[in-house]
Structures are given as structure tokens and as C-alpha cells.
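Exercise 7. Given the encoded structure of a 113-residue chain, write a plausible sequence.
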């Protein structure tokens, strides 16, 4: 069999023999829980959670930073069409509105106290 995505010959067990092949047999889903790339990734010293913890920003300001960091970075939808995987990325507007909501919430909270 031949991989439809890259043309490489597949092994008998239908797994592509090319490590860098994009065929579905080699597809590994992106990390969505433990240090996902849209928040900076685990190797990044400025990953959102690290900055939020280091600066002790708390819930509202922490969420504000989180949404600013991921604006336009987070995949919205993945679609499989045959052997091709298509990923749609958000334009970031929703995340920026969420960041503004949390910032307004924090300002209102501080004005009341």
C-alpha cells in the first residue's frame, strides 16, 4: 500500500515507514492539556501559566493574560478529508473580548473596594 498523504510505502501493518510523514497513521494529536502550544508550550519560560503564577495575578488578571496569550493561536476545528487533515485557527477576536471582560471585571471589583 502507498500512503495517500505522502506517497511513501507503508509497512504490512499499514503504518507509514517515514517518521516525518503526515499520513493519518502517524498523526499525533496536539497537546491540549499539559502545556499546549497556544499558551506558549512547556519549554517557553513565558508560558501563560508560568507568568500568571510568577506574578501572582489571581483569577481575573490571570484569565486576562491567558486569553491575550492565546488570541489567534488556538485551533478551533480539525477536519479530516481523506488523508488530509485541515486545522482552522480562530482570528483571536473572541479571546480578546474574553480578556477585556476579565479586565473590566477586575477594575469593577477594585473600584468597589
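Solution.
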Amino acid at each position: 500500500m502507498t500512503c495517500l498523504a505522502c506517497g511513501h510505502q507503508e509497512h504490512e501493518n499499514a503504518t507509514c515507514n517515514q517518521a516525518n510523514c503526515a499520513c493519518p497513521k502517524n498523526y499525533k494529536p496536539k497537546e491540549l492539556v499539559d502545556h499546549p502550544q497556544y499558551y506558549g508550550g512547556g519549554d517557553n519560560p513565558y508560558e501563560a501559566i508560568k507568568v500568571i503564577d510568577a506574578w501572582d495575578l489571581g483569577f481575573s488578571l490571570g484569565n486576562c493574560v491567558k486569553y491575550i496569550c492565546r488570541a489567534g493561536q488556538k485551533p478551533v476545528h480539525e477536519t479530516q478529508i481523506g488523508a488530509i487533515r485541515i486545522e482552522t485557527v480562530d482570528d483571536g477576536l473572541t479571546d480578546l473580548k474574553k480578556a477585556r471582560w476579565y479586565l473590566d471585571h477586575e477594575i469593577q471589583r477594585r473600584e468597589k473596594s
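Remark. The longest strand covers residues 75-81. Students should compare their own answers with the one above.
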